[in-house]
Amino acid sequence: MEPETNQETNQETNEETNEETNQETNEETNEETNEETNEETNVETNQETNQETNEETNVETIQETIQETIQETIQETN
User: Fold this and answer.
1) Total structural domains in the chain?
2) Residue range of the domain that includes 32
């Protein structure tokens, strides 16, 4: 009976240890995955925001340039 009891105890201990190890591994993997996903999402969001800002700035700059050119042309004509 002794070996059977030891076998049962070992089995239980192994199952508990495996559960704990799996839980820890899952938490670490989830943290890493979340961090990577967040970094990728941040990069994409920053790129989109930069693109939008650049487009708006370009439009404003073009409008200002056109306005200045019109003013200069009017002054030269007068």
Assistant:
1) 1
2) 1-78
- Quick: pLDDT tens for 9-36: 999 999 999 999 999 999 999 999 999 9
Residue 46 CA to residue 54 CA, distance in Å, equals 12
Closest by CA to 63, choosing from 55, 74, 53, is 55
CA 40 to centroid of chain Cα atoms: 4
Supply the pTM of this predicted model: 0.58
Among positive and negative, which fits the CA dihedral 72, 74, 77, 78?
negative
Confidence tier at 3 by pLDDT (50, 70, 90): low
